[in-house]
Amino acid sequence: QVQLVESGGGLVQPGGSLRLSCVVSGFSLDYFAVGWFRQAPGKEREGVSCISSSDTSTYYAASVKGRFAISRDNAKNTVYLQMNNLKPEDTAVYYCARYGACPPITYDYWGRGTQVTVSS
What we know:
By secondary structure, this protein is mainly β. It has strands at residues 3-7, 10-12, 18-25, 33-39, 46-51, 58-60, 68-73, 78-83, 92-99, 107-110, 114-118. Strands 2, 4, 5, 6, 9, 10 and 11 form a seven-stranded mixed β-sheet that branches. The chain has a four-stranded antiparallel β-sheet with strand order 1-3-8-7, with no helix packed on it. The N and C termini lie far apart (40 Å).
């Protein structure tokens, strides 16, 4: 069965950093793109980042470009999202999801999410 399990969320001060992890099972990162989307109260769902399977090309939303970095470790079946210079507007539940390709538009499996709160 396909599963994606996020971890690493928490409370962080503005300007701080946080690293999210997504452990996947039931499929190989060699063959599927994996990315992150986020949902915050009063806002539309936003595709944040994505990493492809073949050449590890990446996608970043304009709102996070230059601050976030996505990577993967295929041997550990894990995708990471390094988040730097966090801002209050980054506060959201972050979900890891499987995509056919990047950019992260259409997903078929996703995790339960991890809460990220950026506050003083």
